[in-house]
Amino acid sequence: MKQLRAKIVSNKKAGTCFYKMRLASAYLAAGSRPGQFVEIRCARGEDPLLRRPLGVHNIVPGGIEVFYEVVGAGTKLLSAKRAGESLDIIGPLGSGFDIKKGRAANILVAGGIGVAPLVALAGKLSRDKTAAAGMQVLIGAKTKSHVMCEGEFRKYGARVSVSTEDGSRGRKGFITDILKDILGNGLTSGNTAIYSCGPMGMLKAVSRIAREHGIPCQVSLEERMACGVGVCLGCPVKTRDGYKMVCKDGPVFNAEEIAW
Amino acid sequence: MVNLSVGIGKLKLKNPVMAASGTWGFEYGELADIDRLGAVVLKTITLKKRVGNPPPRIYETASGMLNSIGLENGGLDDMIENKLPKLDGAGTRVIVSIAGDTKDDFKKLAARLSKCRRVDALELNLSCPNVVHGVDEGLFAHSEKAVYGIVKAVREATPLTVITKLSPNVTDVKIFAAAAEAGGSDAIALCNTFIGMAIDAETMRPRLGNIIGGLSGPAIKPLSLRAVWEAAKAVDIPIVGIGGIMGWRDAVEFMLSGAAAVQVGTANFVDPRSPAEIVRGLEKYLSKHKIGDVRKLVGAIKLG
Ligand SMILES: Cc1cc2nc3c(=O)[nH]c(=O)nc-3n(C[C@H](O)[C@H](O)[C@H](O)COP(=O)(O)OP(=O)(O)OC[C@H]3O[C@@H](n4cnc5c(N)ncnc54)[C@H](O)[C@@H]3O)c2cc1C
Ligand SMILES: Cc1cc2nc3c(=O)[nH]c(=O)nc-3n(C[C@H](O)[C@H](O)[C@H](O)COP(=O)(O)O)c2cc1C
Ligand code: FES
User: What pLDDT does residue B130 have?
Assistant: First the structure.
């Protein structure tokens, strides 16, 4: 973990309210693992005050990418940044996904902006032949214009299924319906792992399905953060072992650990 | 060369800038160079381990933040066995912040910590807005009798420098500062966070799991500055100014209003290097204004 200034290589609109930003930093490229995040200072002054946590979206030669949705003041400021400007960043932070080698089937379940960190994971899995062959990505979104990163996942060799809440793309309903079908049809071997990122309600449903099928499941959580490193004790999640900090002990947890 | 060193009771600090309780921790590692600071105040501990409040514990507000951590901490044994040893080689003063449910808790904490070589001073947290203490269902710092009683008990239990950290959520901070002074406190720290709350208009729910929390950051600076100014006039012991200090300019303002030293809290989250940068900025300011000794700034506000 370091505090550094990283130059913005590009910051491109990638959909209605989504942006992809590439940051130059050999340190972050070498040190980041899928599932980790960075804390970005969006303003020079005091408004907005706190840093914004964004997941490592992709690890590329000489840097990393973040993929973000504009939802408030901080992400709005970020979206206005131009290539050539630089940002004050602390990272890489948190635990990252625990990738078991040689799993025959890896199912990545994304809800909404939860696709962001799963792209880095897909990239990593694509480099393991066994894992790459059985990689499936399930993307759940509100409408067709909220379906993101499909191309990236396909590039990494994953089979992609989509569901939208309004039925404007893919299957109508929740992504967990597709997950249930896949597992119910026995389309996976016993050597399966699930990785998921998205809203809390979805993660809870995904982990229940995983448990029913006896499949190990890792979830990436979000909580409001101040320090991002474990100092302020501001980002707890209730686990079977009491409160743990999402920034330091997570953001990726074994689903079984969480007191849903 | 300007002199930056200051004294708080028996405690000598190489400069007047400290990291505030609850806002610095070992997790910062190399990000924060604490050897450049006058002191670090560790996160408040209680006798026994404490579980904090339910999430969400943080909410950002206009130029500030609300927190309702709830004094989550590992307790006294954890401090002595796991935390203090990590500071063995640190080139800064170590101040341990303590809180208790009763006067007796404070006494026990003070007595045990006084035997630890690495502890240079104690800060009494009588003012955390996120926990309910035994006195009239409120904070100790809301009862001047309780403030006096606890400070006196701690004073009798320790030879260490004692800093009493007060709550700003009172009608008249001067009365409480005077009570701490009468009890034998070596210094007063002002302010802890200001009680506040936030609501989500869409969900109609409170933003914090604990409903109310403590406001910190630039938003509270004018409020804190005024509290320091009032307290400095009311007592003869040094005041440690805290509240929204983000840069050296803020630190200077606090000293002008009467603070003998300052603590930096929320700014650590924004930039963990800020306390060290404040030291550097303070030194430059003094040179520029040809002030040879930082102590000359204390209460040097020009009136009339
Ligand atoms: C570990 C982690 C990884 C994340 N990764 C991504 C990502 O890759 N892409 C992405 O678009 N978003 C991600 N988020 C959510 C992102 O941090 C928030 O959307 C962002 O902070 C909003 O800032 P704002 O100023 O635009 O919005 P505002 O709503 O104005 O922010 C106000 C405050 O609330 C906090 N906040 C708001 N929404 C969230 C949230 N969902 N989670 C945590 N804090 C929040 C902000 O940090 C800020 O302190 C991640 C969150 C966490 C905790
Ligand atoms: C997340 C957080 C945790 C805190 N924890 C403590 C604590 O344990 N003990 C204490 O005395 N003050 C605590 N404080 C208060 C700070 O030490 C400080 O008094 C206050 O935040 C005002 O200063 P600031 O505006 O520079 O942050 C905490 C503040 C924050 C924001
Ligand atoms: S954000 Fe400070 S402990 Fe997690």
Answer: 53
What helix, strand, coil percent values describe chain B, rounded to 5? 40, 20, 40
Q: How far apart are CA B298 and CA B5, in angstroms?
A: 13
Query: Among B184, B175, B177, which residue's Cα sits nearest to residue B150?
Result: B184
Residue B167 in any domain: the answer is: yes
**Distances from the Cα of B161 to the Cαs of A215, A221, B13, in angstroms?**
57, 43, 12
Map residue B221 onto helix, strand or coil. helix
What is the total count of domains within chain B? 1
Residue B255 lies in domain: 6-50+71-194+217-297
Q: Is any ligand 3 atom within 6 A of the Cβ of residue A252?
A: no
pLDDT value of position A131:
77
Q: What is the pLDDT of residues A219-249, one digit of tens each?
A: 999 999 999 999 999 999 999 999 999 999 9
Predicted TM-score (pTM) above 0.90: yes
Task: Write out the two tokens for B177.
Answer: 């500062």
Residues B182, B155: Cα–Cα separation, whole Å: 11
Query: For this structure, is B116 an active site residue?
Result: no
CB A131 within 8 A of CB A108: no
CATH code of the domain covering residue B171: 3.20.20.70
| pLDDT tens digit sequence for A176-211 | 999 998 888 765 666 889 999 999 999 999 999 999
Largest interatomic CA distance in chain A = 55
Determine the Cα–Cα distance for residues A148 and A167; give it in Å rounded to an integer: 15
Q: What is d(CA B36, CA B15) in angstroms, rounded to the nearest whole number?
A: 8
* Residue labelled with tokens 């996160």: B43
A3–B31 C-beta distance less than 8 A: yes
- Using an 8 Å CB-CB cutoff, list chain B residues near A243: 51-52, 72
Q: Considering the domain boundaries, does residue B268 fall inside one?
A: yes
Report the half-sphere exposure of A159 (CA within 13 A, side-chain side): 11
What ipTM was reported for this prediction? Answer: 0.94
Cis-peptide into A217, omega within 30 deg: no
**Residue A233 Cβ < 6 Å to ligand 3:** yes
Residue reference for tokens 């709005």:
A76
- Whether B204 is covered by a domain: the verdict is no
Give the whole-angstrom CA distance, residue A110 versus residue A162.
10
Mapped onto helix, strand or coil, the DSSP state of residue B131 is coil
Residue for token digits 């500071």?
Answer: B87
Cβ of B124 below 6 Å from ligand 2: no
Domain presence at residue B63 = no
Q: Distance between CA B274 and CA B278 in Å, rounded?
A: 6
- Give the number of the atom of ligand 1 that is nearest the alpha carbon of residue A116: 8
DSSP B253-273: HHHHTTEEEEEE-THHHH-TT
Residue B93 identity? R
